[in-house]
Amino acid sequence: MLIEAVTDYAIYMLDLSGLITSWNPGARRFKGYEESEIIGEHFSRFYTDEDRASGLPERALETAAREGKFEAEGWRVRKDGSRFWAYVIIDPIRGKDGDLLGYAKVTRDLTERREAEAELRKNQEQFRLLVQGVTDYAIYLLTPEGNVSSWNAGAERIKGYTPEEIIGEHFSKFYTDEDRKAGLPAIALESALKDGRFEKEGVRVRKNGTQFWANVVIDVIRDQEGALIGFAKITRDITERKSAEERLERTREALVQAQKMEAIGHLTGGVAHDFNNLLMAIQGSLELMKRRLPRSEGQMHQFLDNALQGAQRGSALTQRMLAFARRQELKLQTVDVTDLIKGMTELLHSSLGAGVQIETHFSLGLPKASADANQLELAILNLAMNARDAMPKGGSIVISARERNVKDEPGLKPGRYICLAVKDTGTGMDEQTLLHALEPFYTTKGVGKGTGLGLPMVLGMTEQTGGKLYLKSKPGEGTTVEICLPVAITEEEKKTTHAAPAASPVTPALRIVSVDDDPLVAFNTLAMLEELGHTAFSASSGAEALGLIKEQGDIDLLITDQAMPGMTGADLAEAVRRDWPDLPIIIATGYAELPEGPAQAMPRLAKPFFEQDLADAIARSVRSSEKVS
After folding, report:
1. Contact criterion met (CB below 8 Å) for 549 and 538
2. Of 73, 108, 161, 614, which one is least surrounded by beta carbons within 10 A?
């Protein structure tokens, strides 16, 4: 009854020759034969032709009789000719006296299990091929102790070890010495055990000793009972991504810095413009007062001289601010740097004091530079004063110049440059100070001892000229500031002289319209013009000036401020040119930027100006108009 009830196993008897003598429902179910069809038939009919030809059925019976059991897996054939994978056991049946009576044969259909195992093997092989085919990731297994137990192609490519070199080694050898001393490998495994997963970015080491930036993930592997089998470790080389992120961050910082500098530049330029107007009023009034005060008032003249010197220092400060903001009017000319430095030697010695030695080194045959000689002098003096302040116990300053040919460098156009360097033996600057040294109003000097505009002024002048500034410094090794200026390329180079300008020729009395929206500046300019013997008409706006010119009819010269609300000086000049094309125009401004148009070619008068500056500008304008006529 038991055997008859079994349907998952074919259980049947064979006689000594292998003929079937019994047949259960399980055999009928998956072999397809009815009992009446198969009883008396040889069991070899269930074998494939190949197995019968090889004598496998006979060997199975012989093995069972000899060894007491035959067990095997193989292909078998159903009644309909289809095949199935069978697990077969043949046991000999013996009588009480030990004589062989026949065989008991049990067959189980394992086709589904075999297919499942084959599918599993296929998936495992595909997974193995997948893991081995990945070259962008290092994918490998670790034992519970942290030893490497597998190694894919990506791991070999990224870390440099072959499987034979690394399997069995502890994964801590991929860490830096500092990380191993800090116990990071053990911490990684402990974190993975605690949380089920560990992920981190850090520096790892290749076989050749080079380092790379890695993203590391460690997962815990457990069996079905939850026992620890090991760890799966995936490592990705993210050095390029990290470098890109760092470049992006540097770009962002540079953008923020540029935006900040631009904002400060606009603020500085605006403050300098307003301050220029105040200085115009103060300086002009003091000069007129000094001219009209009797010589007998000696002490009063001293007071006025002192006040004028203060105004001139204020003017120098605005020049620095405008140079930083790149809104200063630069007069580019051909400058012999060697002669310029030699001409400044006495001034430098007297300004720096006896404790500072000055050396000069110039390459032979240096070409001349394109620069504003006065601003270049001021820049060198600024650098020398900074160098002196960095050497409280004295030291030496080396001023040198060399020619440099630039082909491809950020911030410089290809061409020839004169590089002028000022090097000191002072205390130097650390990285943080060096980072901020070129920022406006940043100073390491005591309160009241520095404006923080010296280096920014030099930077502004250099870049406005078309050059570049280099700043190098280390604590205890001094500082070197090098400014590279374009070589002047002209058909006939003119020698730069620093002699006092010749006295202006006598200018006939003119009828002049002066335009300025600041009443203080307008008052002083009007007074200066009258002091020079001219007939002056004052206007506070461009529209008022146009009305005056139309009303008077015989105006000889227009002097106008540039920065005015409503109608700028350039706008006024353009309007005047349409109706009075021959009327000379002077634009008074401290700004270098003027819009495209007629104003670009007009004479300019830099604010703040003295009476002599005004007289010279009028004389030049008159001479130019006479040449044109």
Report:
1. no
2. 73
CATH of domain 134-237: 3.30.450.20
In the predicted model, is pLDDT for residue 490 greater than 80?
no
Q: What does the alpha-carbon distance between residue 548 and residue 259 come to, in Å, rounded to a whole number? A: 43
Q: Give residue-wise pLDDT tens across range 136-147.
A: 888 889 999 999
Higher pLDDT, 27 or 455: 27
The rounded distance, in Å, linking the Cα atoms of 371 and 351 is: 23
Ramachandran area for residue 606 (φ above 0: left; ψ -120 to 50: alpha; else beta): beta
Taking the domain 511-628, which CATH number applies? 3.40.50.2300
Counting Cα atoms < 13 Å in the Cβ hemisphere of 580 gives: 19
Q: Which helix (H) or strand (E) holds 355?
A: none
**Rounded CA separation 58/41 (Å):** 15
Burial class (CB in 10 A: 0-12, 13-18, 19+), 206: middle
Query: Whose CA is closest to 534, among 624, 611, 627, 607?
Result: 611
Q: In terms of DSSP bridges, do strands 415-424 and 478-486 run parallel, antiparallel, or are they unpaired?
A: antiparallel
Structure confidence at residue 162 (pLDDT): 92
- How far apart are the two ends of the chain, measured CA to CA in Å? 138
Extract the tokens encoding 411.
């911030």
String of DSSP letters for 419-449:
EEEEEE-S----HHHHHHTTSTT---SPTTS
Instruction: State pLDDT tens for residues 46-75.
Output: 999 999 999 999 999 999 999 999 999 999
Query: Nearest Cα to 168, choosing from 192, 189, 145, 135?
Result: 145
pLDDT in tens, 71-91: 999 999 999 999 999 999 999
Q: How far is CA 266 from CA 64, 169, 253, 458, in A?
A: 104, 63, 20, 17
Q: Measuring CA to CA, how many Å separate 168 from each of 140, 148, 150? A: 12, 5, 9
Q: Is the dihedral of CA 142, 143, 148, 152 positive or negative?
A: negative
Q: What is the pLDDT of residues 500-510, one digit of tens each?
A: 444 445 678 89
- In this model, does residue 434 exceed pLDDT 70? yes
Pick 299 or 592 by higher pLDDT.
Answer: 299
For 35, residues 6+ apart whose C-beta sits below 8 A from its C-beta are 23, 28
Domain definitions of the chain by residue range: 2-111, 134-237, 249-325, 333-486, 511-628
Q: Which amino acid is at 404?
A: R
Asked if residues 585 and 560 have their Cβ atoms less than 8 Å apart, the reply is: yes
Fold match, 2-111 / 134-237: yes
DSSP assigned state of 136: S
CATH architecture of 333-486: 2-Layer Sandwich (3.30)
SS3 category, 81:
coil
- For residue 247, give the 3-state DSSP assignment: helix
> 2-111 architecture in CATH?
2-Layer Sandwich (3.30)
Residue 201, both tokens = 């970015």
Give, as one character, the DSSP assignment of residue 43: G
